[in-house]
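TetR/AcrR family transcriptional regulator
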Amino acid sequence: MPDIKHFDPDSALDAALRLFWRQGVSSTGIQDVVSATGVNRSSLYATFGNKQDLYLAALRRYLKERSQPLFDRLAEDGRGLPAIAAFFAELIDARCSGEYARWGCMVSNAHAGPENGDPEVRAILDQHHQRLRDAMYAALVRAGGHGQLARGVDPGAAADLLALLAYGVNLRSRAGADARVLHGTVTAALDSIGSHTAV
C-alpha cells in the first residue's frame, strides 16, 4: 500500500521550528517534538529523517522565512543609516515583546549552542552571517553616498561591527536585557560611525 501522510508536513515543521527556537536542539527530545507536532515518531522519521535532519530543515526554514526577508528589506532600503536604525528597532521590538519575546534568534542561539559543531549547521550559520553582513554593507555604502558616515569609516569594517551587534541584541534579549538599554547601545554604535555634519 502507498504511504499516505495523515498530517501536514509544513505545519509539523513549523511546530518543530518553534520548539527548537524556544528551547534549543540539545534540550529537545524527540518525544518533545512528537508532543509539539502531534505526529508520531515513525511518521516524523519517515518524513524528515532523524531529529538532526528535522532540526536542519527547521533552521533552513528560519533563515529563509524569518531572517532573509529582513536582510532583503535592509539591503534594498535607500535611506542609509536610518534604514539600519529601523532594522535594529524592529529587531529589538521582536526580541523583547510579542509572541516570540525572549526567545532570541534561532540562528544566534545555534551559534551559542553545541550544535554549531555540526558541519551542516555551521554552513547554515555562515550563510546567515554572510547575508546579514552583506545587507549591512549595502546600507552602509548608501549611507556613505548620502554623506552620513564619519570621515574614515570603512563600510566593510562597520558592517562587521553591526552584524556582531545584531547577534549581541539577540543574545542579550534572550537573557532578559531591557529594550531601552539595547536601543541605547544601538544608538551609541550608529553615532560612532555617523557624520555629525550630515543633514
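thats it. The two ends are 70 Å apart (CA to CA). The mean pLDDT is 95. bye
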